[in-house]
Amino acid sequence: MKIIALVFAGGNKYSFTKFSKNVNDFVVLEYPGRGSRFNETLITNIDLLIEDLLPKITEEIKNGEEYIIYGHSMGALLGYSICHRLQQMKIKQPLKLVVSGRRAPSSIKGKILSDLPDDLFWQEVIKLGGIPDELKEHSELIEFYLPILRADFKVVYSYNYERKEKLNIPIDIFHGTMENMTENEIMDWKNESNREVIIKSMEGNHFFIFNHTDYFIDYFNGLVKGNINTAILKN
User: Fold this and answer.
1) For FRET with 140, which of 18, 87, 150, 215 sits at 20 to 30 Å CA-CA?
2) The whole model's pTM is what?
3) Beta strand pairing call for 2-6 and 26-28
């Protein structure tokens, strides 16, 4: 079993290092404009980013491997959208979609953070959590990081929800207790699949997953071993 992971806004393939080092076949896809793809042009439209990522996913499963798609925040929205695209194209589906840190795709969009001036945009990003202390006051790093973040926030805002055929795969949903989401925005995930949708709340802010790394390492290892129906029920 292979886990194909999609990172959050501003992330790169090293953002999930704690998972990839401790979980077999945990593959993190890289987006253009960062990490090993630094020299490529940043993408600001979700449809174009999906078109970029689809061939990479099909390459990962070309030998018929069973797989799971996991995404956090922006990665969750991408994972959901990619699963729909795979279903429409009749390409081998993942056994399960796993998302964290993301309200249901049918939720109304929030304010357009990507259009804010740099200082205000950076303040809003910090409020989400997950920014290392050494980066918060380092002007050169901030200058490097801001265009990537701004492009990714534009990707998220470019998404337009359309009611379509439900997914035919189960979905596991994780969210933090201190995230800026209403109960309805989380529960609406249950409308997105014909299969079982399980929702689990965990203590923490938007980047709660990094406060529960041992839990998620066990969870992902359970999925890799084929325990796709019970992994989320672990206490």
Assistant:
1) 18
2) 0.90
3) parallel
